[in-house]
Write a structure and sequence with these properties.
Layout lengths: L1 H16 L9 H22 L5 H4 L5 E6 L6 E6 L5 E5 L3
Antiparallel strand pairs: 1-2, 2-3
Helix pairs in contact: 1-2
The protein binds zinc ion.
The site of zinc ion (ZN) has 6 residues, from loops.
Keywords: Membrane, Transmembrane, Transmembrane helix
């Protein structure tokens, strides 16, 4: 779904910048391609992971501090309380 949306956006951009006369009649559609692709991408983003909290889906995770990263002592693991997403970040304490 995301790959398809990306492909459509790419098509739109190519159409937008293509100055070949053959493609000229299609230039008007380029914007629709891009907008359509972005809408598809947004839908995929929001509908794709139904089990996630909506805040997580837009990137606002509720990270909780976990144990230290073994190979990098200055970093800790953080895990989201809602969706379980993990990340590493520097931590002094
Ligand atoms: Zn999350």
């Amino acid at each position: 779904m995301k790959t398809l949306a990306g492909f459509i956006i790419l098509m739109g951009i190519i159409l937008l910048f293509a100055d070949a006369e053959l493609l000229a009649p299609l230039e008007g559609f380029a914007v629709y391609f891009i907008v359509g692709g972005l809408v598809m991408l947004a839908i995929a983003q929001f509908a794709g992971n139904g089990e996630k909290h909506w805040l997580c889906r837009i990137g606002f995770h509720d990270f909780e501090r976990q144990e230290r990263v073994e190979e990098v002592p200055a970093m800790r693991w953080y895990r989201c309380k809602r969706c379980g997403k993990e990340k590493r970040a520097a931590s002094i304490v």
